[in-house]
Design a protein that fits this description.
The chain is mostly helical. The chain has a single domain (6-174, 224-377), classed as Na+/H+ antiporter like domain (Na+/H+ antiporter like fold), CATH 1.20.1530.10. It has 15 helices and two strands. It has helices at residues 6-36, 42-49, 58-84, 90-115, 119-122, 133-141, 149-173, 180-198, 204-221, 227-233, 238-265, 281-307, 319-328, 333-344, 349-377; strands at residues 52-53, 56-57. The protein has a two-stranded antiparallel sheet with strand order 1-2. Strand 1 (52-53) and strand 2 form a beta hairpin. Helix 12 packs across helix 15 and helix 13 packs antiparallel against helix 15 (349-377).
Amino acid sequence: MTTIPPRRLAALLAFLRDQTAGGVALLVSALVALIWSNASGADNYFRLMALPLGFLPLDLWVNDGLMTLFFLAVSLEIRREITDGQLASRRQIAAPGLAALGGMVVPALIYAGFNLTHPATARGWAVPVATDIAFALAALSVLGRRVPVALKVFLTALAIIDDLGAIGVIAVFYTPRLELLPLAAACAICAGLYALCRAGVRALWAYAIGGVALWACVLRTGIHPTIAGVALAFLVPMETTGHRLEAGLGPWVTWLVLPLFGLANAGLRLGGITEGDFGTSVMLGIVLALVIGKPAGVFTGTWIAVRLGAARLPPGLDWSHIFGAAILCGIGFTMSLFIGDLGFHGSPIQAEVKLAVFTASSISAVLGIAVLAIRGSST
């Protein structure tokens, strides 16, 4: 693994701090939603989330609108890492890349194994494929200096590739229909934004207006509108506008978008849950996929990359560090709930998905922190 330049390291550490803060804010808002949805005013919570605002209810304004900013911020980080960061060379990308691939394939297969004969639930195969980078880094922060910075860098690179894979899954597998006229308009806007970039236009307002127009068109195509944020991230000039946009978006995503996402999606009535709910195909598929499948896929993918000589462990890390980080990859909160909403919005199955994701993410966080704490205390 190559040495990270000081300027690049400073930017990366700032990103890690933002993600950690975002994880804490997301956790607090999720707890508020969980408490509110089980308090005496629970009906008010669900009515508020379904409140029509223009042409979308409030919860969809969060999931289809504000989450576009989250996808834009994540995609800008992906692009920056590909350009001059931890994903800039084959050797740098090999270990986190194979780890992310294993961490997507194995959980998907486990979920599919439990739900293949259940058409109503099979659509949720992608729920356990992604790691919540904010929660995972927040969990690492609990251990303070006992966690090497190199492990945070590795986990960040892995989660970024993981998110890229999840974005691809959403675009390909969660598009129920395709409207050609809005798609043509979206393509035309992308071409226009690309032309602006090639012409050297750096004005942020021009790309902001184009981004809003692109989102409106993508919303009508049948493709999930958050993909507009992904497209915009790869169309702005990275060295100037992209860096300014990423820096400006950071606080908004951390302190507004993620908390509102947690508030809108973590509501779950616990009163009607029985022991039988923990034995459903959805519950078993998601929990085992995240708690067992995710670490197995991540660890095995990393081992294969090192064994083949395509990569080596970063200095200061050993396999116990990788194992602990692999367990933390089972924290799938944001993307898991997001994909669960895409697959089962308005269905009773969505409540099962939430319960399973909460359970699996909690188990993964506790186990991962415990393994890394034991590793740190033995040095």
